[in-house]
Amino acid sequence: MSRGRRTSLEKLALGIYVAMFVLFIMGPIVLVVVVSFTSASFIAFPIEGYSLRWYHRIIEYRPFLDSLLVSMKLAAVSAVLGVLVGVPGALALARSRSRLASTLSTFLLAPISIPAVVLGFSLLYYLSALIQGISFLSLVIAHTVLAIPYITRTVLAVYRSMSPDLEEAAAVLGGNRWQVLRHVTLPQVKPGIFAGAVFAILTSLDNLPISFFFGTATTNTLPVVMLSYMQNQFDPSIAAISTVQMMISVLVLLLVNRYYGIAKLNAA
Predict the structure, then answer these.
(1) pTM for this structure?
(2) Does residue 37 lie in a domain region?
(3) Has residue 233 got a pLDDT over 50?
(4) For the CA atoms of the chain, what is the radius of gyration?
């Protein structure tokens, strides 16, 4: 077999593999979106007709909208708190060569390496002892605990790849610690902060085990409400609210790309 023919076959095999992988990932998402527009009262293929009735169901069933607002607020607050805690911690650990720093860096992965049910059960008992009962504050703390590892690890990776000569040059030129941090360090680690915050938001929006432990009538998140809804009835409104949730995530990314510049972050 000639080398050129072998290369063509390898490209063809790679193309087929990539196409099958994309189909495997995107197929269920496309099916959910299509099902959300069905006119039937059940999920079936082929779809008999198309309607917006299940999107009207989202408005009629108040817990869907209330829990969606709670999830969005919770994701934003936990991501901000995760940045405020995770970024200073990552900067402090990145330049240290002590065994303690290495141990702490590994320990920060604990919240995402421990099973979510175990973590949620432990946080429930711990926060219940510190805070009066289950509340939105407890839910924020629990989700912030999940957010910190993503933000810390991404900032650590970016900061360790950054040359320390930049900060040393800024200090030699007369910059104090705050000026060096603001004008040199933070702009360099901005991609890591952004990536970690995105991971934290997506994890919070999709989290069920921990949210389930801290949910109340006024603080239930969307995944918890969807699970409760499916226990009693299963209709295409679940597909409709899932599509809305997905579109919100896509819209946020588009707005960030438009006004903040994801391309600039990648080029940084």
Answers:
(1) 0.79
(2) no
(3) yes
(4) 23
